[in-house]
Amino acid sequence: MAPTVGDSLERRWTGGSVPPALPARGPVDGTLLMTVAMCYSGMDYEVVHTDDVPMTDLSAVDEIPPDLRIRALDDFFDTDALNLKLWYFEPGEEIQYHAHAEQEELYYVLEGEFSLKLGRSGEETYVDAGPGTFWIAKPEVGHGHRNVGDEEGVVLAIGAPAVEDPGLDPHGLDDGD
């Protein structure tokens, strides 16, 4: 049976017991209290609470702007087909407007208030986004976002295919015609 909002990890597991390695974390309330990955090679599962995924401070990595913090869920789960990150933004922090050659990215705001810059060069649009908002950026389509709120913001980013695809300047790309 699939978990529903309000189900606890304890009730969802097998018959009400929690495996010794997985302490109950409380009810699932729609804010990504836990991440569940299922590998289809014979019913293998991995379950982790967000707090158990190491936080990486990108300010310590010279080659990777911006100076934000992330939880690299894709590294933790060793995913093959997608990149999966939780990005943490203090007020005013941003990921600048950029594009990717191959990767499509889906974003979801978990916490905070953001201003999004979306669209091809010369056709950019600004959109406000708060908790519960999704947006997608196809390959070669510019996108960026800034935390415009007064508190920390958290964004889930899912990118596929899982390739090294550094950001490109959208102003230098053809319009696809």
Descriptive notes:
The protein is mainly β. The protein has a domain at 54-172: Jelly Rolls (Sandwich), CATH 2.60.120. The protein has 2 helices and 12 strands. The protein has helices spanning 9-12, 73-77, and strands at 34-39, 44-49, 55-57, 69-72, 83-89, 94-98, 104-111, 114-118, 125-129, 134-137, 143-147, 153-160. It has a 6-stranded antiparallel beta sheet with strand order 3-4-5-12-7-10. It is globular.
Classification by helices and strands: mainly beta
The percent range for strand residues is: 35-45%
Bin the helical content. Answer: under 10%
Low-confidence parts: 1-43
Helix-strand pattern: HEEEEHEEEEEEEE
Tally of helical runs: 2
Q: What's the CATH superfamily of one domain, by name?
A: Jelly Rolls
Indicate the topology.
Elements (H helix, E strand, L loop, with lengths): L8 H4 L21 E6 L4 E6 L5 E3 L11 E4 H5 L5 E7 L4 E5 L5 E8 L2 E5 L6 E5 L4 E4 L5 E5 L5 E8 L17
Antiparallel strand pairs: 1-2, 3-4, 4-5, 5-12, 6-11, 7-10, 7-12, 8-9, 8-11
Short structural description:
With 177 residues, this protein is mostly beta strands.
Overview features:
disordered N terminus; 2 helices; 5% helix; six-stranded antiparallel sheet; 177 residues; Jelly Rolls; globular
